[in-house]
Write a structure and sequence with these properties.
The protein has three domains: 11-176, Galactose-binding domain-like (Jelly Rolls, Sandwich), CATH 2.60.120; 180-270, Immunoglobulin-like, CATH 2.60.40; 287-591, TIM Barrel (Alpha-Beta Barrel). It is globular, with a radius of gyration of 24 Å. The protein is built from nine helices and 30 strands. It has helices spanning 55-58, 306-319, 333-342, 366-369, 381-398, 420-434, 477-495, 522-538, 578-591; strands at 11-14, 17-23, 41-44, 63-71, 80-85, 91-96, 99-105, 111-114, 124-132, 143-147, 153-157, 171-176, 180-191, 194-204, 208-214, 220-225, 228-233, 247-255, 258-267, 272-275, 278-281, 284-285, 288-292, 323-325, 345-349, 404-411, 440-444, 462-465, 499-503, 542-548. Helix content is 19%, strand content 31%. Helix 2 runs parallel beside helix 3 (333-342) and helix 8 (522-538) runs parallel beside helix 9. By secondary structure, it is an alpha/beta fold. Residues 272-590 form the Glycoside hydrolase family 2 catalytic domain. This is Beta-glucuronidase.
């Protein structure tokens, strides 16, 4: 699905701002049938959970409703009119006046509707959106709803971050011609000093296709005609980690001498390859340094915020990192665009987190606490169908981003259980069918070492989350070092594939200090990471380290988490802990070739 853009043939109207808001308590009737009966207002984009002082809203399980009026510009007469939602977590339904126009499942990916037949250029219409936060054993991510005394519902889930909900990203109204570009796929390669930009254009209606590639100074470097082809770029400037270079690809639909539609996108020419136990970008070994992150800030929850986007990337640059994983769901498209422009490498992950009833953020068996899961611990045909949808929509959205170098199709699933290889093998094949140009991985959980995991054989890169010294060998870094190295060498010997430590770290309270290796202190966090780094440097197949987490974030794991997960290198408001400075020393040395 193409991201809406303003071009010579397309226009955009932002619908962000304050919307009427109401929780569906059973007395709203049909909220789309007229003005929403509420005095509450909620900003878009934002999670709704932390906005209000009423705990019934924060803890609500089920549907909430947003509503506003919008006006179609009068100049859009004769154009197709679309409404686009960048995300509705976890399920959305949209009404124009009293007509349902689209319904979508999956809380972190976009959807849209052609509303041309329901609106009039120059006139207002009522836009009502229902958002449902319920998770079941068959959704991605999964969960289970428990009914409490008095009829109140409680949502349980297996992932260790708060189940924020709402319209987390932008809502836009846009126009496009009836005959238009509906999709573009770009694949790049390099032969000597020549860049190859393969493209495939899909359209609605019949029209000739013309493509033009320009460099960053606006000079034309290649042109072609036809819906498919390859543009050759002599003396190509490559997209490099830390040194992004982006060409502009303009796609035009032409009827006679007239351009009936135009769409443009950035193109970074680069190659990605796994060769033996190395990860190569542009044919050169690449070592990942960085983080697992979260979309999580105070008050707005998972609501996208451009100020935090810029500041987070500035901190990534300051600390010397070159990458991050979109743990554990697709991030806003603005994040991916920014990574493209600034040369930050991304492991792009689906929302398949918590597919594991053995853990709840590594803490307890939540499924058991909530009465047990139905079916096959969730690994049934309904979940598989939802999982395929998540993979398909993620790749469709992010396939053209040069920053994306690998797909992660799940985080910490139960890969110990019999039958999980039968569940995951077709999903790996499906991801490779949709995109044969990038490696595919998943992230392995600590209870599934190399001799136990049934799924790692399908991955191109071994990605593992380990907490030796924290959840295991707690506070005993000497023993943790022995156990960590032994396991990594076990992976290396069994698979011979490149390995990335996608999570490692320790909860840390800012300002807590000790002269001993005392868990929760800033010194312990730094010492634990130093221990991991010593081991990484001794294991040849290690190609990356991504600390858990970039910043502290909110969770809902009861008394085990005191106001959230505190494994951040930065606090939730982005203040550095002591470990940030030691990481900066290590990672800037790696970045500058001094390590």
């Amino acid at each position: 699905m193409l991201k809406p853009k303003a071009t010579a043939t397309r226009e955009l109207v932002s619908l962000n701002g304050l919307w009427k808001f109401a929780v569906d308590s059973g007395d709203l009737g049909e909220p789309w049938a007229g003005p929403l009966a509420t005095k509450l207002e909620a900003p878009v984009p934002a999670s709704y959970n932390d906005l209000f002082t009423d705990s019934a809203i924060r803890d609500h399980v089920g549907w909430v409703w947003y509503q506003r009026t919008a006006r179609v510009p009068r100049g859009w007469a004769g154009e197709r009119v679309f409404v686009r939602f960048d995300a509705a977590t976890h399920e959305g339904v949209v009404y124009v006046d009293d007509v349902e126009v689209v319904r979508h499942e999956g809380g972190y990916l976009p959807f849209e509707a052609d509303i041309t037949d329901h609106v009039t250029a120059g006139a207002e219409f009522r836009l009502t959106v229902g958002v449902n936060n319920v998770l079941t054993p068959d959704t991605i991510p999964p969960g289970l709803v428990k009914e409490l005394p008095g009829g109140r519902k409680q949502q349980g889930y297996m992932h260790d971050f708060y189940n924020y909900a709402g319209l987390h990203r932008s809502v836009q109204l846009y126009s496009a011609p009836a005959t238009r570009v509906t999709d573009v796929t770009v694949v790049t390669d390099v032969e000597g000093s020549t860049g190859l930009v393969g493209y495939a254009v899909e359209t609605s209606g019949e029209a000739a296709v013309r493509t033009t590639l320009r460099d960053e100074q606006g000079a034309v470097v290649a042109t072609a005609v036809g819906a498919e082809g390859t543009l050759e770029v002599p003396d190509v400037r490559l997209w490099q980690p830390g040194a992004a270079y982006l060409y502009d690809l303009a796609v035009e639909l032409v009827e006679g001498d007239a351009v009936v539609d135009e769409y443009a996108l950035h193109v970074g020419v680069r190659t990605v390859e796994v060769r033996e136990n190395r990860f190569l970008i542009n044919g050169e070994p690449f070592y990942f340094t960085g983080f697992g992150k979260h979309e999580d800030i105070a008050v707005k929850g998972k609501g996208h915020d451009d100020a935090f986007l810029v500041h987070d990337f500035e901190l990534i640059d300051w600390i010397g990192a070159n990458s991050f994983r979109t743990s554990h769901y697709p991030y806003a498209e603005e994040v991916m665009d920014y990574a493209d422009r600034h040369g930050i490498v991304v492991i792009d992950e689906t929302a398949a987190v918590g597919l594991n009833s053995r853990i709840s953020g590594g803490i307890a068996d939540l499924m058991s606490a909530f009465g047990g899961a139905s079916g096959e611990e969730g690994f049934g045909p309904k979940m598989a169908e939802a999982h395929r949808r998540e993979i398909r929509e993620l790749i469709a959205r992010d396939k053209n981003h040069p920053s994306v170098v690998m797909w992660s199709i799940a985080n910490e699933p139960d890969t110990m259980a019999e039958g999980t290889d039968d569940y995951f093998e077709p999903l790996f094949a499906y991801a490779r069918e949709l995109d044969p140009t990038r490696p595919v991985t998943f992230v392995n959980v600590m209870m599934a070492p190399p001799n136990v995991c049934r799924v790692s054989k399908f991955a191109d890169v071994i990605c593992i989350n380990r907490y030796y010294g924290w959840y295991v060998d707690t506070g005993d870094l000497a023993t943790a070092e022995v156990h960590l190295e032994a396991e990594l060498r076990g992976w290396e010997q069994m698979y011979g594939k490149p390995m990335i430590m996608t999570e490692y770290g320790a909860d840390t309270l800012p300002g807590l200090h000790s002269v001993w290796d005392q868990p929760w202190t800033e010194e312990f966090q730094a010492n634990l990471l130093d221990m991991y780094h010593r081991v990484f440097d001794r294991v040849d197949s290690m190609v990356g380290e991504q600390v858990w987490n970039f910043a502290d974030f909110q969770t809902s794991v009861g008394i085990f988490r005191v106001d959230g997960n505190k494994k951040g290198v930065f606090t939730r408001d982005r203040r550095p802990k002591a470990v940030a400075h030691s990481l900066r020393t290590r990672w800037t040395a790696i970045r500058d070739g001094r390590a």
